[in-house]
Structure to design on (697 residues):
């Protein structure tokens, strides 16, 4: 009752989106890492696994609501003063979370990605990070029929959570087809234990070079529901196959595929829900002006920040510094930004 | 007179900028957050002390000073610098130029347009930078003398007292929203209706907060709170106005003409920024209270570099300017302020 009043008061008179945002710096004195619109989580453990994977255990604050297996959260860490945010699927079921109080993330560290390369260092020095509410609708729906999970690389994470949560709730066959590079399959012990525990669960671990077809192991006679998580091209292949055979298909896209930058690439940009096409041989501001989008131009040379907007996702190059941005949410200056991938912006 | 090697100047200053920005990180983030934290403590502390004025009036005086300090920090070191985008790299929702709104009458977006863009791009170009004299004062022979300039010292004092309202009305005056003939060289970025709406909305909320809401909440202490708020606002207005005048209107600051600035190179742009500004010497606490506008030269050269770095780069900037024989205008507070007052008086008359 008091919170909405205080929030409105803060908006009008303290010029902050919420009262929590106004007192954030004070709260941080008592609770390090506390942030107004996110949940605080303690970094309990960070372990390096094979194939450049990190297993991260987080203990979220008591207020964090429980997720549904298959959902994701955004993880925010402070790395050298910058807040970096990325979305990860939780690799634990609600039951596991209740039992241990810990959330598990399995993160593939990718040397190219700004975020993941900094993540390990940041977590080593910052005992606190922040997480969002769980969200996403890539969750189990097939209690009354067989299902097949197809995972590619770190696409295994939602599957781990779903298997743990759902195997005891259904008697129908669940099969996991798990592709990864040789030696990079994660949590194999866990999977083995699940087969011992549940007769209706089976899995195969494959590498792409040995089994070029993703769909060979799908038992189409059972007419299973298909759940797929992996790189974009990977999921596309499975999606096409299921469409052909009329199978029910669910997917979770978790990674951004990044084409090489040559001078004249075309990318799609989602701005306030509309989609536009831009080229990479011109800064974004000029192109948006030509399209008569509601952009602000100031100096046009990267000084005044008039043209700044929020990038929700995608990568841009800052022509002033010649640096690539992160893939996550951040502010960019349109007058010095060149598209390097598909983008989502908020003007 | 030495001839200036503009290319060399640009290279030297760019080098200072790049090497400094490369080291910006945790330290700077911690710095600005700690200033915001202090600002909060001062603001909340000040408002609480007002209420204790009836126990001991000195507590009320302390409250006025604390709230004044909070308003100065919010206006100068936090608001001005965050809204310049100096801390945007932090990706912090509370500290970025897109969303920050300060505790003064002026709508942040309006200030961004006039100050960040107009003033910082066209610094001291007569006719383009309305910050030069704010359309109220005659500060160089570039302007025709008018009768009203005779009493412009009084105008200056009034402007200082009401500084936040001057800043707030600045864009609307330039756009001739209420009175005057529209200048042909201005193409307003925003509709007049929007300007008016945001002007009244922000201004009204500031007035209601300090002169209605908080005093009423204080009940019987209505007058203590009302007068405390009034004085805190006054202290902030006088302080910001004084600092900003010292940064731009000492006798030595130059003016420029539009035709001279056509096709300006980066080096020439730097040159103009350096000569259009002046610094004030002082202790660290003084620099923080001025929002590091005591390093006005550094700020004008690198408006989006975190203010936490101006002090550190100042000697390098001075050296780079000296190498080209360009003046680096600095001095103690009283020296600079006297110079400002002299300039205002001198151009009061033909
Ligand atoms: S228009 Fe000024 S920074 Fe882009």
């Amino acid at each position: 009752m008091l919170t909405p009043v205080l929030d409105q008061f803060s908006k009008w008179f303290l010029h902050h989106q919420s009262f929590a945002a106004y007192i954030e710096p004070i709260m941080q004195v008592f609770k390090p890492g506390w942030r107004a619109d996110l949940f605080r989580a303690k970094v309990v453990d960070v372990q390096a696994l094979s194939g450049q994977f990190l297993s991260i255990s987080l203990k979220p604050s008591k207020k964090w609501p429980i997720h549904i297996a298959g959902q994701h959260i955004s993880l925010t860490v402070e790395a050298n003063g910058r807040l970096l945010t990325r979305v990860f699927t939780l690799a634990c079921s609600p039951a596991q979370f209740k039992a241990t109080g810990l959330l598990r993330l399995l993160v593939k560290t990718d040397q190219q990605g700004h975020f993941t390369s900094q993540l390990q260092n940041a977590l080593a020095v910052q005992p606190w990070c922040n997480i969002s509410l769980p969200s996403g609708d890539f969750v189990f729906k097939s209690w009354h029929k067989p299902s097949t999970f197809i995972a590619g690389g770190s696409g295994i994470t939602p599957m781990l959570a779903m298997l743990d949560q759902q195997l005891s709730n259904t008697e129908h066959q669940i099969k996991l087809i798990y592709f990864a590079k040789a030696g990079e399959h994660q949590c194999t012990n866990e999977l083995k234990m699940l087969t011992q525990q549940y007769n209706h669960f089976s899995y195969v671990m494959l590498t792409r070079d040995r089994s070029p077809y993703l769909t060979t192991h799908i038992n189409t006679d059972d007419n299973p529901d298909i759940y797929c998580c992996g790189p974009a091209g990977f999921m596309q292949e499975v999606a096409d196959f299921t469409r052909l055979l009329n199978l029910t298909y669910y997917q979770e896209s978790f990674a951004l595929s990044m084409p090489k930058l040559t001078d004249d690439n075309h990318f799609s940009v989602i701005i306030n829900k509309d989609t536009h096409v831009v080229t990479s041989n011109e800064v974004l501001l000029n192109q948006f002006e030509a399209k008569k989008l509601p952009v602000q131009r100031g100096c046009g040379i990267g000084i005044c920040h008039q043209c700044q907007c929020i990038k929700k996702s995608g990568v841009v190059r800052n022509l002033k510094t010649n640096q690539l941005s992160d893939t996550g949410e951040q502010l960019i200056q349109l007058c010095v930004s060149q598209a390097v991938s598909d983008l989502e912006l908020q003007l | 007179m030495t001839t200036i090697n503009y290319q060399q100047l640009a290279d030297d200053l760019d080098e200072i900028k790049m090497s400094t920005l490369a080291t910006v990180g945790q330290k700077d983030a911690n710095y600005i957050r700690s200033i915001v934290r202090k600002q909060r403590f001062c603001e909340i502390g000040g408002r609480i002390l007002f209420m204790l004025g009836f126990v001991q009036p000195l507590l009320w005086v302390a409250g006025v000073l604390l709230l004044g300090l909070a308003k100065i920090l919010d206006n100068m070191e936090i608001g001005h610098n965050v809204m310049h985008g100096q801390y945007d790299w932090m990706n912090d929702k509370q500290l970025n130029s897109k969303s920050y709104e300060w505790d003064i009458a002026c709508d942040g977006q309006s200030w961004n347009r006039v100050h960040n863009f107009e003033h910082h791009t066209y610094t001291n170009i007569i006719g383009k930078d309305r910050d030069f004299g704010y359309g109220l004062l005659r500060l160089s022979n570039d302007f025709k003398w008018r009768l009203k300039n005779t009493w412009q010292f009084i105008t200056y004092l009034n402007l200082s007292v009401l500084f936040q309202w001057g800043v707030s009305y600045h864009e609307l005056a330039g756009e001739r929203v209420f009175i005057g003939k529209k200048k042909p060289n201005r193409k307003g970025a925003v509709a007049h209706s929007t300007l008016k709406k945001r002007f009244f909305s922000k201004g009204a909320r500031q007035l209601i907060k300090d002169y209605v809401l908080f005093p009423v909440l204080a009940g019987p202490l209505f007058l203590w709170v009302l007068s405390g708020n009034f004085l805190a606002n006054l202290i902030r207005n006088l302080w910001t106005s004084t600092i900003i005048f010292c940064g731009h209107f000492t006798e030595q600051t130059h003016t420029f003409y539009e035709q001279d600035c056509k096709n300006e190179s980066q080096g020439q742009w730097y040159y103009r920024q350096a000569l259009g500004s002046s610094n004030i010497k002082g202790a660290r606490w003084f620099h923080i209270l001025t929002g590091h506008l005591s390093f006005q030269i550094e700020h004008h050269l690198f408006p989006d570099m975190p203010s936490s770095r101006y002090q550190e780069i100042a000697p390098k900037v001075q050296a780079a300017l000296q190498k080209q024989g360009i003046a680096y205008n600095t001095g103690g507070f009283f020296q600079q302020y006297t110079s400002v007052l002299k300039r205002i008086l001198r151009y009061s008359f033909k």
Summary: Chain A is about 25% helix and 30% strand. The radius of gyration of chain A is 22 Å. The pocket of FE2/S2 (inorganic) cluster is lined by residues A 297-300, 302-307, 333, 335 (CB under 6 Å).
